[in-house]
């Protein structure tokens, strides 16, 4: 290993450490979400869209099953609950009506 290779390795370690301390990934995701939220007519949408696609692709590649489960759960939350019919509706209706005297 030469001195240049060692210096490059040390520089990469320092850059990685500082990126972790400054949480650039979280900052970039927050900025991307804020830029995309107003819609595609905003000028900020277009520079942020490729970053959002890259972030989503990275998450999908890193955790495919977890991501798919979250997509399914989000879709389930948006659906209306299924209508439940009471099989004893007629019997219950007569049981709850007040008796006429």
The count of β-strands is 0
The average pLDDT value, as a whole number, equals 81
Beta-strand fraction estimate: under 5%
Shape verdict: elongated
Assembly state (oligomeric): single chain
Model regions low in confidence, pLDDT < 50 over at least 5 residues: none
The number of helical runs is: 5
Structural class: mainly alpha
Estimate percent helicity. Answer: over 70%
- The succession of helices and strands, N to C, reads HHHHH
Biggest sheet statistics: none
| Cα-to-Cα separation, first versus last residue | 103 Å
Provide the gyration radius in Å.
Answer: 28 Å
List the helices and strands and how they pair.
Layout: H1 3-22, H2 24-36, H3 45-62, H4 64-78, H5 89-96
Short synopsis of the structure:
Helices cover 73% and strands 0% of the residues.
Give an overview in words.
The protein is mainly α. The protein has helices at 3-22, 24-36, 45-62, 64-78, 89-96. The longest helix has 20 residues, at 3-22. It starts with a helix and ends in a 5-residue tail after the last helix. The model has no long low-confidence stretch (mean pLDDT 81).
